[in-house]
């Protein structure tokens, strides 16, 4: 694969991820229920993680991959904690 094709593909992926981030932000802000807001937050952190990965590929720096890993771990824990809060009304029993 040639360098210009890879650069344009990464740019196209980042534009599409930006549009998906706008849709997830809309769901996070205007979700009719709390479950919709949590789903919007989960989609937002996954998209942010993918955006960091594509940016890391573009600039070829390992720091972005580590940041994406941290965002993935923290986002998963936050989603589980919020889901447990919605189910039981408390996070720590």
Would you give an account of this structure?
It is a multi-pass membrane protein. This is K+/H+ antiporter subunit F. InterPro entries: MrpF/PhaF-like. It is a single chain. The protein has about 90 residues and is mostly helical. It has a single domain (about 5-90), classed as Orthogonal Bundle (Helix Hairpins). The protein contains three helices and no strands. The chain has helices at about 5-30, 35-60, 60-90. Helix 1 packs antiparallel against helix 2 (about 35-60). It starts with a helix and ends in a 5-residue tail after the last helix. The mean pLDDT is about 90.
What order do the SSEs take from the amino end to the carboxyl end, as H and E?
Answer: HHH
Number of domains: 1
Question: What percentage of amino acids are in beta strands?
Answer: under 5%
- CATH hierarchy: architecture: Orthogonal Bundle
Look at the structure and give the mean pLDDT.
91
| Helix run count | 3
Percentage of helical residues?
Answer: over 70%
Distance between the termini: 54 Å
Membrane topology: Multi-pass membrane protein
Subcellular location: Cell membrane
Keywords: Cell membrane, Membrane, Transmembrane, Transmembrane helix, Transport
Family: Belongs to the CPA3 antiporters (TC 2.A.63) subunit F family.
What brief labels describe this structure?
93 residues, mainly alpha, 87% helix, Helix Hairpins, elongated, 0% strand
Topology:
Layout: H1 3-30, H2 34-59, H3 62-88
Brief synopsis:
InterPro entries: MrpF/PhaF-like. With 93 residues, the protein is mainly alpha-helical. The chain has helices at residues 3-30, 34-59, 62-88.
